[in-house]
Structures are given as structure tokens and as C-alpha cells.
Amino acid sequence: MANFFKDQIIFRGDGKFRLVRVQNDIAQLENITTGEFSNHDEADLLDEYVRGYLRTVKSKQYQRSPKRNVVQEALEAATPRARQGDFETRRRVNYLVRLDRTGAFDGPRSALCLAIHKVAVDLDDARPPHETTVYRWRRKYLLARFDVRGLLDGSWHRGGLGQSRLNPAVESAVQEKIETAFLNSKSGTAEDVYNAVFLEIQRLNTTRIESEWLKVPALRTIQRRIEGIHAYERTVARYGEREAQRRFADQLCSRRVSRILEIVEIDHTPMDVMYTDSDGQVIDRPYFTVVFDRRSRCVLGFCISSAGHGVHAVFEALRHAMMPKNYLGERFPELSLEWPCHGWPERLLMDNGREFHALAVVDALTNLGVTCEYAASRDPNDKPFVERFLRTFNYSFIHKLPGTTLAKVHQRVGFKSEDEACITFEQLNQMVHVWITSVYHHRPHKGLAGRAPIDVWKEDATAFPPVLKCNAEDLSIEFGEFGECALQRYGINLNTFRYVSPELLALRGMLPARQRVQVKAPYENAGLIWVWDPIESKYIRANNVDEQFNNLTIEQAKVIKREYETSDAHQRTRANAEEWIREKSSEAMQSKKLATRKRGARQAHTTSKSANRPQATASEPQVAQPPRSFTRESDELSDFEIESVNLEVDHEKE
């Protein structure tokens, strides 16, 4: 067995063995610990060696720092360490090879001495080694079984490498001041430590005689001590344990998924661009909420909103992601946009924002069969794919548009975003559609081995088709504000509005006294709510008694109601709620103050909702008004609708 030799020590796993004998390709091994003998085939041992299970040495015995390249070695040859290292190793090899060729080791010691001097002349070596040194080199070479690594120079191990040569009192002062003046400070420097050490040594010298005064170390000594501090320890001292763990965490691969819609991520970000109205007046910097598929890296849906990034933005982005994008041909007829990404996700991964922890979001996703999962607190790497997409979205697309604010304030040099802004909200929404469907989805993705996200989606959609688990109406019901309200004889009071319907009042008679009911209130329409019927296990529609609040958001309706309460009665009859909202929002957005224009955009509920949904057809049912016979204040007066708000206010005062 030529691969191993007698009495060789080998390691198999955690065990240590000695090779006893080899016969007919069968090796007999002795367990050093237990003394047990075992026979092994040569091929099996070689296979274990290839797999790494069998090792010939416990650890690497011959090591030196790796060299970058030949040119770098030549450049570093002038340094003392390189000359003592590489050159000394080559010198030893040259002496042993030349002496072995002449047979100098077979003769007496005097003959070896003459041979050494002759080789020194050939090598132009002014200081030839002593014969004892050559014998020592040869012994190391033989013990290493003719391995040249046994001749590696180890001069860098000489001296007190890594050991302090300073006086213990001085060393203690240096370490103490590094801890107090450098590590405990957010911006400490080596000069600060040096000054603190200087003062400390001056203080110590006041208690010593002149012959025992301590010497102040040089600034370079302080710098070397600071350079030797471990990066993790420095981060812990300056920024805390949590930040250090985040910076030095193991960046392993994230959770793998095997199909589309298995894990879907959602997040917000401010869009780094300012949009304008039709007259070129700068309005706002909107928020962008995106729903992102981890498997295909495709964008499932989004919501652009100047009305904040609350629960309504989450619901609108989820609705856009779940529903088919059949509005593209009608909304953008001049563009051939394809966006086949939709469906119910199995698991929705969110961060810990208030809007994601809202009871309405959790209840809606649970009823829709979607599992809610929250990323670790202050750990963006727990949902890295959507975070990386948002960076790509802003840096690769938004930062190239006129009116961009860029990512950082210090980057806005030589221009003002407000002066360059010229894109309207509708144009911005259209540009986002085009970039996602025609640029991002068709761009080769490094995380997909160079494949385009849309190709991965189509391939997986063939094996795992997206599922539409609920009706579109059910989706609209679930994506509403959740609450529990008391069912009164006149209906339900919610958000200072009164809702009623025949079915709702009939339900009151079938429930126990003072029974509270569960309600879903759409954020985008204050004209209706959905009440859960626990008897029939279905939702009942209840309409607002004042039809002026139909198709207004809850926030818009509250603004109108507050204005009504402070206005005269005749103005109430003349004013139309939707027209009033448009006028107030338009006035605010024409203001010279940017903050006022932002408030106007919020009141107008400027979002991508209307643009990212199919147009309503004439056949769709309109919001119906409840019969007046079921209301407490109803009578035969013809001006009931005009005085409905007054009646509601009177009822609240009772």
C-alpha cells in the first residue's frame, strides 16, 4: 500500500488510529484509544480521504501567509519579513539539494563543511550556514517525508510578537483610556486616547522618584493598540450589542420557496419624486406600497397614495395584487401592457408597522385564508426581497425622473426638486405601470440565475396556477374597517354616521337584547357598511341615511360634517358634498405652502385606486337609500333628505 506507511498516525472522524501493516491491499489499523484492531480495504480508505473523513494530520502543520501573485512577491521582496521568509526558504532548499547531489551527507563532518563553503561560493552567499544548522535542516526535511514545507522559515515567530513591551502600569493606562476615551465615545480618536494617557502618566509620575518615571508611549503605539481591537468589540462598545449582532450576523440564504405565491412580502416607501397638478403646481411626494412575490421576484400589485400609508393603502395594494389586471387595455389602450400576476398568497410577510398589526388587516387576511407573518423587529433582512426591490425601484427608475428628490439630502446639490417637477399623478401612475411590466419584469435577474421574473412566473403558473378563492364582492367587504357596534332601534352609529336597512332592523328582533354586531366599513365609501348576520352567516348591507356621503371616504365625510355643523342651514341645502370636497381640495392644492397642498391631496384622497380598477358599468347596482318608515325621525315631510343631518345631530344630543 504505497499511499500510507507503517506506524503512520491517521485520523478517521474523531478517532485516532495507527497503521500496523498492509497486506494484499488490506490495511490493519489500531485504535490508539481502545487498542482495537480493524481491517480496511485500501480503496475504502482512499474514498474516506477524498471525502475528508480520513485525515493524515490533525491540523495544518506547515502554514504561511498566502501570497497574492508573483509581481507582488517581487515588490515585497525588499521588506525584511519577505526577505527573511521566502528568500530564506529558497536558500535552505538550494543548500540541501546541492549538498545531496554531491553526496556530502554520506561523508564525514569535515567533508560536509568543505561542501557547504563550495555551495556558498556558487550561491554567492557571504554567510554560509554552520554544518550543525544544515544537519538540522536535513532532519526537518526527512521528518516531513521530503516535503519542502518542512523547510519554511519561521522567523516571524521569534521575539515577542503580540506581547507588550511597555511597563505594566503604562499598558494598564493605555487600555483604560482606550476603553473610556475611544470605545465609549461615538467619535473618539487615537489623539484623544494619547492625550488621556499623557495626563494619566503625568499623574502617576507625581508619586514616583525621577529615576522611576514612566515614559509616555508614542502616538503610533496607541494607534496600533486601537487597530488590534476586534471589529465586533468596537461595534458593541460604540453602538450596542443589538447593532453589533445586526452588522455581523450570518448572512445566509433566506427561506427558500418552491412555488409562486408561497411567500409574498409587502412594504411601504416614500417615492423619491414630487408630482404636480395639471397647472404645474407641486403637490406632494407620495407613498408607494408594493406587494412582492418571493419566488418569481414579480410585482403583484401596488398603491400610490398621497393620503398616507395606513390600512387603506395596505388594502388597496392587496386588492390590486389579488385581482386580475384586466383594466390595462381599457386604461392604457395605446400601450401593450401584460401583467398576468395575481392570486391569493399563502403567506403574507409584513414588518411591524401599526397598519400591518391593525385588527382590520389581520381579520381580513384570516377570512381570506392568508397566513399573517411578521418579520423580526428592526430586521430588514427578514424580508430582503421587497427591501431590495424598493431600492431598485427608486434608484433605477424614480431617480431618473424630473422632480426627483434623490435618496439623501446632501445629494440635492445645484437643483430644487420643486422647480423641476412636471409629472402629474396620472402620468406617474402610468410610468410605474410601464416600468414594472415592460422593464423590470423582463430584465434578467441575478437571483434567478439570469432569468426574467415574468418567465419564472409563467413557468410556475403552469404547474401552480393562481387561485381566486373569493368573489370580488367578498374582497371588497373584507377590506374594510373592522369594529363592533350596538344595534339600536334606528340602526347603527359608526364614525358619527347612522346606517340602516330593512334587513338590519329585522335582525335586531332576532338577536338577544343589547347584542353587539360585527361591522365592516369600507374606507373608500362612507355611504355604506356591511354587518355580519350571525344567524344566516352572511353580511347585510346597511346604507348611510344621508346620500351625500356616498362614494366619499370616511375622512372626507367627516370633514364635510364638521363644516356643516358650523355653517347655516341654507348653505347645507345648496352645498353638494362631492363638489364641496373638490372645491376645498382644489383651493388647498393651489396654496403657496407645500404643507397646505399636501393636506389638500390627502383630503382629495389622491391614490391609484381609481386608476388601477376597472371602470364601473351602468349595470352595476348603485347605493340604495333605506326606506324612511324604518327611521325614528322619518315623517311625511318632503324635505327629509335636506334635514337628515339636522335630525342626526338632534338624535345625538338626546
Automatic annotation (TrEMBL):
Domain Integrase catalytic, first and last residues per copy: 266-461
Top-rank taxon: Bacteria
GO biological-process terms attached to the record: DNA integration
GO MF, one example: nucleic acid binding
PROSITE patterns noted in UniProt: INTEGRASE
Gene3D superfamilies: Ribonuclease H-like superfamily/Ribonuclease H
Biased composition (Polar residues): 604-622
Disordered: annotated span: 582-654
Pfam families: Mu-transpos_C
PANTHER family, A to Z: TRANSPOSASE (PTHR35004:SF6), TRANSPOSASE RV3428C-RELATED (PTHR35004)
UniProt name for this protein: Putative transposase
Protein species of origin: Paraburkholderia megapolitana
Source species taxonomy: Bacteria, Pseudomonadati, Pseudomonadota, Betaproteobacteria, Burkholderiales
